[in-house]
User: Fold Endonuclease/exonuclease/phosphatase domain-containing protein from Thiohalocapsa marina.
Amino acid sequence: MHCPPPCPSEGLMLRTSLPSLKRLRRAVLISLLIGLVSAYALADQAVRVVTWNVETVGAPGSEEYDATAAVLARINANVVAVQEVVSADDVDYLGDLAFDLGYTYSVVAPYGPFGSQRTAFLSDFPITWSEDWSSAELSGDPLANDLTRYILEVELELTGDGDRLRMIVSHLKSGSSNTDEYRRAIESYRMGQAAGDPQAPDAPLVMLGDLNADVGDGPMTPEVFTSIPDDLPGDFDTGADIEAMLADEGLLNDPFAWLAPHGSILEATQLDGSDATRPESGRRIDYVLADDSIRALEPLAQVYDCADEGLAGGLPLWGAPLEPVVCETASDHLPVFADLTIPTSTSDCAAETALAQQPNRASWIDLLRVVRDDVLSTSPVGRQLVDTYYRHSDEVRAQLLTRPGLTWRALKLIRMLQPDLESAARGVTPSFDSRDIASIRAFAQQLGENASPALRADLGKFIEHQLFALITEIDAH
Assistant:
């Protein structure tokens, strides 16, 4: 069972008339466990996405294929948006790559009107719907033929509770001539049309791909197209909707402007500070964009460069560090990946339902966040616990995504402890018995089985020792 995000509320009401915050420490100790598990990971769905122009997949056993597989394994994304699947053989090789990396679901766009390059998705999540958007479909003009490549959209099933994620990948026209920019402006406009499709599923949206434009380039020349270039390919046919725009206010020569109403660019850099995604040119042309519902949950993004492996910081990676040459062997682009938290709809989780039925009460997730941020942070021990939470939340979230048994135990524990949390919300001193302690111990031990040494050490320190020592101190008073 996947628990939902906070429901709208008038805020949490923690009474300050209690004799002391010490009397809330039982609730604090309970919330520590759930805070460490990461309330947002249980409430919302953590998804890692990556976009990558792979240049070519390559045959299994080739240097290109092995390098591509190594980079994607290192990033270990839930969803991969691929650009430049260049041939029928490459489609087969992509299937081999999906199998080797453990991706259960995949879809490849058909050949576009101008060239053989295609886009694709590989996914851990079921692909419940896909669409290969053509210019005729998007424009309403059956004669329109103004897309270099089809725009690929998928809908993913995230939780089994009806929660969905929309993703759109596109590979816009390359080149720097006015005609190239004209075609790129149309293609970004079409991508925006797909994103804003009124018949689209009501779900959070991520757009990504090789946009072949650097957001730092500034105003283009011309800033607005008012006529059709005369050196377009013979089969190219500007859609009637674009022709009407040219005759009126013109077509804005800014691919990012057409996407902005539907999502914002996630800032991403290499660990050395560069934002280049195509090292040879030093330009940033590959992007992940997310809508406001996702951006509100503070996504993080990064450009992965094998040459940065020795540098500190960055998002978590899997497996052993790669040699600097691996990325350049795989592609002339660098992958851009992002850790997203996808808001999900209300389900029938017991704790959520119980609190949602109380007027003027926050959801149980609001409660946990407030206790973590407003109560724990008021004491030195509490601040250490908050630091522990932030230090390990990514690792714990990853465990929850890959260990259903651990997630089940966490949810069961939350439901069992729900009355204590409700008591704290009402200003009543909660109880904390031996069964609670035993359950927390069992969860901590299971979490520690596959934990990093750092997380295991903190579990031992805070859960096994300080937590129960503090309980004894409270009982003594």
